[in-house]
Amino acid sequence: MSTEALRIVWIYPDLLSTYGDRGNALILARRARQRGFRVEVLEVRSDQQLPTVADIYLIGGGEDGPQALGAQRLLADGGLHRAVAQGAVVFGVCAGYQLLGASFFAKGTQYRGLELLDISSDRGPSRAVGELAGDIDARLGLPPLTGFENHGGRTRLGPGAAPLARVTHGVGNDGATEGAWRGKLLGTYSHGPALARNPALADLLLRWATGAHQLPPLEDTWADRLRAERQAAVAATVRP
Amino acid sequence: MPLRAKVASSVSRTAAALSRAAGRGDGSVIGGWIGLKIDPELLAHLSAGRAIALVSGTNGKTTTTRLAAAAVSALGKVATNSFGANMPTGHTSALAKAGSTPYAVLEVDEHYLAQVIEATDPHVVALLNLSRDQLDRAKEVAMMAQLWRAALARHPDVRIVANADDPMVVWAATPPATHDQRITPPHVTWFSAGQRWHDDSWVCPECGSTIQRSGEQWWCTGCPLRRPDPQWTVDDEGVLDPTGAWYKVKLQLPGKVNVGNAATALAVAAEFGVRPFDAVPRLADVTSVAGRYAQVVRDGRTVRLLLAKNPASWLEAFDMADEAPTLLSINARDPDGLDTSWLFDVDFAPLRGRQVLITGDRAYDLAVRLDVNDVPFQHVRTFDEAVRAVPPGRLEVIANYTAFQDIRAELDRVN
């Protein structure tokens, strides 16, 4: 860690916070504090400079205009690139996932992304809206992903990125794979407060940030019940 | 009225009555749907000869419509869609059912405002607010503001009553040529009802720059868009009119939010020439609106129903609710939107220290949210279980759309 406190930066809540994205910052902070870490959460608006010394950077979802504006300001700022070079963890959700890649499609145009993840996104044939589920890359050692997706884009992965999960329900990147990761960068189409349904994913990000091999388990009764309920709901629907 | 419209109107009324008799809702949608099938121009025919006010926005439109209809009734009979059926079918049904009236006050779903302006040729349109709501299918906030703006630009003769506190509304209400808000176009009347939710208006809809706020003021850092001076404001349990006269507003509806809705209603009524002095007493007669705010005694508990559909309306519900045991109920069926992620846009901290119970199809989503929010709660399976779990006295119920309707059905469809 960079300092004695775990620093979490929520990038541009004024632009990229359409679907309860605050939840991911709240969940990470709470789970870290429950393990005895001191935590600072910084909300950095798009007219402010991005600090480069934080441990975890969160980028949320947004509509086309704010997504394009967010990418443009992050490229001009350069802080996220410096932080990643220093080993920071980045978690991107939906629009925030797309803009980590080489390019994305918004307002009818192709935009340049941050080129931090080897992915590129395009407009899909239809909007993907609904439950999303998948089996996560075995190397990450996590239980299945569960979430809700709402996006018009489709994402291709290059050789430098691995899929986060194999889709078992929903669309994700292209109907087969969902999300991507490389090193300590991870993105998903499971939008909004994705970590609410995936506490083990939250703990993975915390382990990456703190260097801890293991974190003490937490009481997750309600998250477990929510996961079971959503998995049952998905199982009850026939895949189109 | 042309013969075809007369037939359509009569069939529409009959279908609505049949639907009500069959116990399938209040009939306001099915009646209008059949009427519009027979004559697509029916809404326009039914609107002709009436002075009409339309009320639209993300939140508060059902209540504001009810209050505005009460205020305008100082002048004569008012047709209104008081059951919240706010699409063209609902308007058709409401006007057909009311028969001939000199006035109509209609609540309009924000997606249909352009279409309903075309059909009804209103005297005045009230624009309340625009915020995130059911984003799994609704339009983006900025896109909605753009649609409103285009529709209003096509009707420069329509008078507008608009919320000065919402940058999206201010931008939508002003034609492009006069977007310097220091110059108010003559046909716009601004009101300020207090706005708690700001998270959908940090980016200027005109130029994309950041919007700054200080106290109640807001301004764009990149263009002339800024908060206009409101002519109608809320002040200390009362409303100030454009002449500076203050009227005490005594309502049976709870919360500061509803005093704000009353101010809007008075501004709408003033566009028809109703003096606040004559309208204010009529506002006090409104007790509940389509079950909202209704109080029902059940097993020694006084149950009050509050509807909260999206983050902005949850903040308002916390303002209205008393410090008392509170039941929260969340569903995610079609009318609610299938996505529950907005729960993390709501800060539930105001509920700390109250006995909190949760229920509904998606109670577990809420449970995870409250856990992260450090709000202790108890999960119950049914409404009855919730009633038994609290001591005699008040029980506040805050629920989203279908959860609200479920509980309302348990309480025998209270109005």
TrEMBL record, chain A:
Residues reported in the UniProt entry to bind substrate: 127
The EC number(s) this enzyme carries: 6.3.5.13, 3.5.1.2
Active site per UniProt: 94 (nucleophile), 191
Keywords assigned by UniProt, alphabetized: Cell shape, Cell wall biogenesis/degradation, Glutamine amidotransferase, Hydrolase, Ligase, Peptidoglycan synthesis, Transferase
Bilayer-spanning residue ranges: none
InterPro entries: Class_I_gatase-like, CobQ_GATase1, GATase_3, Lipid_II_synth_GatD
Catalysed reaction equations from the record: L-glutamine + H2O = L-glutamate + NH4(+); beta-D-GlcNAc-(1->4)-Mur2Ac(oyl-L-Ala-gamma-D-Glu-L-Lys-D-Ala-D-Ala)-di-trans,octa-cis-undecaprenyl diphosphate + L-glutamine + ATP + H2O = beta-D-GlcNAc-(1->4)-Mur2Ac(oyl-L-Ala-D-isoglutaminyl-L-Lys-D-Ala-D-Ala)-di-trans,octa-cis-undecaprenyl diphosphate + L-glutamate + ADP + phosphate + H(+)
One example GO MF annotation: transferase activity
Biological process annotations from GO: cell wall organization; cobalamin biosynthetic process; peptidoglycan biosynthetic process; regulation of cell shape
Matches recorded under Pfam families: GATase_3 (PF07685)
Pathway(s) the chain acts in: Cell wall biogenesis; peptidoglycan biosynthesis
CDD domains on file: GATase1_CobQ (cd01750)
Complex formation: Forms a heterodimer with MurT.
Family: Belongs to the CobB/CobQ family. GatD subfamily.
Function of the protein: The lipid II isoglutaminyl synthase complex catalyzes the formation of alpha-D-isoglutamine in the cell wall lipid II stem peptide. The GatD subunit catalyzes the hydrolysis of glutamine to glutamate and ammonia. The resulting ammonia molecule is channeled to the active site of MurT.
Name of this chain's protein: Lipid II isoglutaminyl synthase (glutamine-hydrolyzing) subunit GatD
Automatic annotation (TrEMBL), chain B:
Reactions performed catalytically: beta-D-GlcNAc-(1->4)-Mur2Ac(oyl-L-Ala-gamma-D-Glu-L-Lys-D-Ala-D-Ala)-di-trans,octa-cis-undecaprenyl diphosphate + L-glutamine + ATP + H2O = beta-D-GlcNAc-(1->4)-Mur2Ac(oyl-L-Ala-D-isoglutaminyl-L-Lys-D-Ala-D-Ala)-di-trans,octa-cis-undecaprenyl diphosphate + L-glutamate + ADP + phosphate + H(+); beta-D-GlcNAc-(1->4)-Mur2Ac(oyl-L-Ala-gamma-D-Glu-L-Lys-D-Ala-D-Ala)-di-trans,octa-cis-undecaprenyl diphosphate + ATP = beta-D-GlcNAc-(1->4)-Mur2Ac(oyl-L-Ala-gamma-D-O-P-Glu-L-Lys-D-Ala-D-Ala)-di-trans,octa-cis-undecaprenyl diphosphate + ADP; beta-D-GlcNAc-(1->4)-Mur2Ac(oyl-L-Ala-gamma-D-O-P-Glu-L-Lys-D-Ala-D-Ala)-di-trans,octa-cis-undecaprenyl diphosphate + NH4(+) = beta-D-GlcNAc-(1->4)-Mur2Ac(oyl-L-Ala-D-isoglutaminyl-L-Lys-D-Ala-D-Ala)-di-trans,octa-cis-undecaprenyl diphosphate + phosphate + H(+)
Cited Gene3D superfamilies: Mur-like, catalytic domain
Family statement drawn from the similarity comment of this UniProt entry: Belongs to the MurCDEF family. MurT subfamily.
Record text on subunit structure and interactions: Forms a heterodimer with GatD.
Signal peptide as annotated in the record: none
Active site: 339
Binding-site residues for Zn(2+), renumbered to this chain: 204, 207, 220, 223
Protein name: Lipid II isoglutaminyl synthase (glutamine-hydrolyzing) subunit MurT
Gene: murT
Mur ligase central domain sequence ranges: 55-168
Source species: Micromonospora endophytica
